[in-house]
Amino acid sequence: MIGQQIIQIHEVDSTNNYAAKLLSEGKLTHGTVILAEHQTAGRGQRGRNWQSIGAKQFTGTYFLKTDFLSVDHLCYLNMSIALAVREMIQSFTRKEVAIKWPNDIFIGSLKIAGILIETNWKNGRVEGAIVGIGVNISPVQSVGYATSLEELSGKSPEVFTVLDALSRSLNGFYHYVQQADFDYLKRTYESFLWKKDEEIVLEERQNPVPFTGIIRGVDQIGNLLVERDGIITVYHNQELNFESNYGRIIPNT
Questions:
Q1: Could you give the 3-state DSSP secondary structure of residue 143?
Q2: Distance CA 150, CA 249 (A)
Q3: Model confidence over 103-142: pLDDT tens digits?
Q4: Does residue 139 have a cis peptide bond before it, meaning omega lies within 30 degrees of 0?
Q5: In whole angstroms, what is the distance from residue 210 CA to residue 250 CA?
Q6: Residue 5: which residues within 8 A CB-CB, separation 6 or more?
Q7: Is there a contact between 50 and 70 (Cβ–Cβ < 8 Å)?
Q8: Torsion from C-alpha of 30, 113, 107, 136, nearest 10 degrees
Q9: Which domains does the chain have, with CATH numbers?
């Protein structure tokens, strides 16, 4: 069961780093979650920091076995995790919660949660995934384009309340990965895809000239499909910049 075994630590540089260390020592089993009160050097997509000092946040890392998945099907693990985090957030608010490709969680134009998945290779196969998840529980004043569970609901849930809800959702969606029900995962993921079928302004990171495109979905290996001038273009992770569509800017302090 995912989330049944919990390792609690007061402070760590990164729960993903800590999980990798335990895994290298043979001390990490499927479903274990590492929960830190404070994370001083947490990592997000594209090397961005995710620090938890000074704000109430959920900062945890799960270890999930993936040795039954082919490399081409790893994107469905990402979809299942994003769907689980989205479902957990949705349980705390009536506002629409969406997945910004590939796995950030947004409400409107504001980010509330992020996911960093790092794979562990052994004998040419992906043996497991170290899944770092950060959720803003209370307002984070030093991060731009952010919101929190407290701002949405007027209440600040306890970290273990978030953990319990998240673990339940992860168990539910991981089941579809185990059953190889990839069509269901893709269809459900696309139904919650942020800005899907809307005209938005995007930039290619290698050619940062703004253009208008329409997100149409993802392909069978998780790449983003964007319609531009009537033509569908396939984009891989980190090839697009979405930031012109984000919400209010909270100045860095």
A1: coil
A2: 18
A3: 999 999 999 999 999 998 877 778 899 999 999 999 877 5
A4: no
A5: 23
A6: 29, 31, 32, 33
A7: no
A8: 120
A9: 6-191 (3.30.930.10), 199-245 (2.30.30)
The two tokens of residue 66 are 């993936």
AA identity, residue 100: K
Residues 6+ apart with CB under 8 A from 16: 42, 43, 61, 116, 118, 130, 132
Q: Give the tokens for residue 51.
A: 């620090």
Structure tokens at 26: 């043979």
Record the tokens describing residue 229, joined without a space.
């001038």
**DSSP character string of 45-103:** GGG-EE--TTS-EEEEEEEEE-TTS-GGGHHHHHHHHHHHHHHHHHTT-SS-EEEETTT
Rounded mean pLDDT of the chain? 89
Look at the chain and count its residues. Answer: 253
Tokens 């794979």, residue located: 119
Give me the amino acid identity at 45. Q
